[in-house]
Write a structure and sequence with these properties.
heterodimer; A: 282 residues; mainly alpha; elongated; B: 519 residues; alpha+beta; disordered N terminus
Chain lengths: 282, 519
């Protein structure tokens, strides 16, 4: 299907002499009929070979995924952790003080977080924290250590924080109204213990179900974040690959993402069982 | 409530820790940070074709000839050379102290090997035609190289500065095969050596201790940052993370000009932005009046002032000004006012068979980008106001546009550009020859081709120049293309960079730059 887009990976305004063009296409087997190219690709794939990149001609697709994925993963995991910690805690606070000023502030911030797209937030954060205040590096390449992670991770986490806070608040309010919480209170337990021991776990179920879509959102959101911050992750390779007609790179990343998402969905299903005994026994 | 408050502290700590390590002071001030718009597609000098790859390669390697800091042709790996009277034989003497980054001597055989690899079909080199006029290359001894030409090629010396003509180290290619152009295996004979390359992010070069002129190199390390987003590059420049930008974003240009004018470098560049006609199909086939009318109805002065607005200059010729030993021929109507041009254009439009009742319906194709869109909208309205042409704008992704331009099936008018590869009018004029594959309009003129042939046979530079100028006049009069504006190079250069010089080729060798000590 990637071949359906007009143009080829080696097309440019400067036209290649016919024999040179033919040699380049032969080197990448682009001169063969499509079904043959497809079979060649599949047989390579079975042996774990994703082929050479057309655009990064000194690298193979597997190498590019190998360097890009760990970065995307680190940023994704950090963003997810940040989103969970901040989202769940602010959602719980809002639930405990329902309709208070605190609740209103958290919920309006959450609404803002959901509404403003990543590609608007990112440049604003860069302008404020990097260009004006010089607290953080503005870009990725050449920036030292951990500092370069901060802005991309925050940018990526913001909308997820907002969703998770709203989910937590709603489900926490629901759980806190249940009978077993009233029983716990009647037994004289403090709010702290009630939340930690009794309320948090059942209130987390909707959040856990949201993890699947959230991971997908972080994966796709990272495409924008990586492009904006110039992070050499998978998302950036994916976008550039599509624009450059780098067939093998795009295919390789699609296959990799597909395998990853199947794996993550499986993990979420298993996680249900760990949290909710009813799921385990059914 | 305590655990919840503790939880809230985690992200705060996260930010604090990060800020603590976010100390980005430069060490010793000997690292130069340059922006490039995309990764080099490869650092194999024969397979590379992008401007970005060439920029990095010029830091790594050195041809027989190179450019001085002042932008003059000067001896590179060759110490001296002689030219025969008929202009057909060049003999180069290499520097005895020219070395590869592993200490091996650079020999004449390495140049022969490189030139042969460049033209070999298996290499599939993008610039294989660059040495098309070269008949043979021989190593007379370790340090003497003889180049014989089929016809006088007065721009040979500037071709020999091109990365595709840099020497290659045969043993290293034999050892590493296709993977020779990677950090750790790529040998270079220029001021720097490739030490690291993170695709999509950063290309790092370090001083080549074996370079013959290493003593003159001031900067120890050069980092080419891959920054596809011009806005991001500007933000990083403002944050002090980039010393030299590859461009300036159009939307911020006026602001940059107001705030950073002393750091902004705008210079003429060897590139022409043009609209071409598909001459193989109606309405433009055999219809020079219509083509001229459309060209005359474009108010180029208004366009560069209000639409592109980044210092571009109007184009009334095909060859940009500033080309070595050449005076571009300008279109006859360059001196008229736009009102006068419009009047003549209306007359031509009628001659071509169109009128208010029977307007020309035209499809204009351009590649999806902000600049192309703005130019196309402006020209659409200029054509409508002056002639009543009904233009349909079709924006296509670049690769799609290229395919359509080449097929000449659906294409009527299209936007394109041509960037010079060397400082000679030939790099622009040759593409309009009938047999040139880059001749997108499919322009065919026996007169033009014969003038180009005669220029190619000329040893006398002044007479060659006259033939070329006449060829340009003939071609412009046929209006196969509408030259619209000439490109300019646009860089922001930090005040701490010393030795920057603007030039038409937009070559800026890192080895000619130095950095002021941090204050």
């Amino acid at each position: 299907m990637v071949h359906a887009a007009p143009g080829g990976p080696f097309d440019e305004e400067r036209v290649l002499p016919a024999e040179v063009a033919a040699n380049i296409e032969a080197a990448y087997h682009l001169d063969e009929p499509l079904p043959q190219q497809f079979l060649r690709y599949l047989s390579g794939l079975l042996q774990g070979d994703l082929g050479p990149s057309f655009r990064y001609r000194d690298y193979t697709v597997a190498e590019l995924i190998g360097t890009g994925f760990p970065l995307s993963l680190q940023i994704g995991v950090l963003a997810m952790l940040l989103a969970l910690v901040v989202g769940v805690s602010s959602g719980t606070v809002a639930a405990l003080r329902q309709n208070s000023i605190m609740d209103r502030i958290v919920m309006s911030l959450a609404m803002t977080g959901i509404s403003i797209p990543v590609f608007v937030v990112a440049p604003l954060l860069v302008l404020l924290l990097a260009v004006k205040l010089h607290w953080l590096p503005a870009g990725w390449s050449g920036a030292p250590g951990f500092a370069k992670f901060v802005l991309p991770v925050i940018t990526l986490a913001l909308p997820q924080i907002a969703y998770i806070a709203r989910l937590t608040r709603a489900s926490m309010i629901d759980v806190l109204g249940r009978d077993f919480i009233r029983t716990a209170r009647a037994q004289g337990l403090g709010t702290k213990t009630i939340i930690r021991v009794h309320a948090l776990k059942p209130a987390m179920l909707p959040v856990v179900s949201y993890m699947g879509p959230a991971i997908a959102a972080i994966l796709t959101g990272s495409v924008v974040v990586e492009e904006v911050f110039g992070i050499p992750g998978l998302g950036q390779f994916f976008v550039r690959g599509a624009l450059n007609r780098d067939y093998t790179l795009v295919l390789g990343i699609v296959i990799f993402y597909a395998a990853l998402i199947i794996l993550l969905n499986l993990l979420v299903d298993i996680l249900y069982g760990v949290i909710d005994p009813r799921v385990r026994h059914r | 409530m305590k655990p919840i408050r503790n939880l809230l502290l985690v992200p705060a700590l996260f930010v604090l820790v990060a800020c603590g390590s976010g100390d980005h002071a430069e060490n010793a001030g000997s690292v130069l940070h340059r922006g490039i718009a995309t990764d080099p597609e490869t650092l194999d000098a024969h397979k590379a074709r992008s401007i970005q790859a060439a920029d990095v390669l010029r830091d790594l390697g050195e041809g027989l000839i190179t450019y001085s800091a002042a932008g003059e042709l000067t001896a590179g790996s060759a110490a001296s050379w002689t030219v025969s009277d008929d202009g057909l034989t060049y003999t180069f003497k290499l520097r005895p102290d020219a070395k590869w980054s592993n200490g091996d001597a650079v020999t004449a055989a390495h140049f022969v090997f490189s030139f042969e690899r460049l033209v070999k079909p298996e290499t599939a080199a993008f610039y294989a035609q660059l040495l098309g006029d070269v008949e043979s290359v021989d190593a007379l001894d370790e340090q003497s190289l003889l180049i014989r030409l089929e016809r006088p090629t007065p721009y040979l010396l500037s071709l020999l500065t091109h990365p595709a003509t840099f020497p290659m180290h045969p043993a290293s290619l034999a050892e590493h095969g296709d993977g020779f152009a990677r950090p750790g295996s790529l040998l270079s004979n220029g001021a720097y050596v490739l030490t690291d390359w993170i695709p999509g992010s950063l290309v790092t070069l370090q001083r080549n201790e074996h370079y013959w002129n290493n003593a003159a190199t001031a900067i120890d390390e050069v980092k080419h940052h891959v920054l596809t987003q011009e806005m991001m590059e500007l933000a990083r420049y403002r944050a002090g993370e980039i010393d030299i930008t590859a461009s300036v974003p159009p939307d911020s240009f006026q602001q940059v000009k107001a705030e950073l004018n002393d750091q902004l470098h705008i210079a003429p560049y060897l590139g022409v932005y043009y609209y071409g006609f598909n001459l193989t199909k109606p309405p433009f086939k055999d219809n020079p009046e219509l083509r001229q009318a459309l060209s005359m109805a474009i108010d180029r002065e208004l366009l560069v002032a209000k639409v592109t607005g980044r210092g571009e200059t109007v184009a009334y010729s095909w060859v940009p000004p500033g080309v070595h030993n050449y005076e571009p021929t300008v279109l006859s109507y360059a001196a008229l006012t736009q009102d006068e041009r419009n009047q003549i254009a209306q007359g031509l439009y009628k001659v071509a068979g169109y009128s208010e009742e029977n307007p020309l319906q035209l499809e204009l194709r351009y590649n999806t980008s902000d600049t192309q869109q703005r130019v196309a909208l402006a020209i659409q309205s200029m054509w409508r106001d002056a002639l009543g042409v009904e233009t349909t704008l079709i924006n296509e992704e670049f690769q799609v546009l290229l395919a359509n331009m080449r097929d000449r099936e659906v294409t009527q008018a299209f936007r394109s550009s041509w960037l010079g590869d060397y400082n000679d009018a030939h790099t622009f004029l040759s593409i309009m020859q009938a047999d040139n594959a880059a001749n997108m309009p499919a322009y065919q003129s026996e007169e033009y081709d014969s003038l180009m042939q005669r220029a190619a046979q000329q040893v006398d530079l002044d007479r060659r120049r006259l033939y070329l100028e006449e060829a340009e006049r003939v071609m412009l009069a046929d209006h196969p293309v509408i030259p619209i504006y000439f490109y300019v190079s646009k860089h922001l250069v930090s005040p701490r960079v010393v030795g920057w010089g603007d030039n038409v080729l937009d070559y800026h060798y890192s080895q000619h730059l130095s950095l002021k000590a941090a204050e």
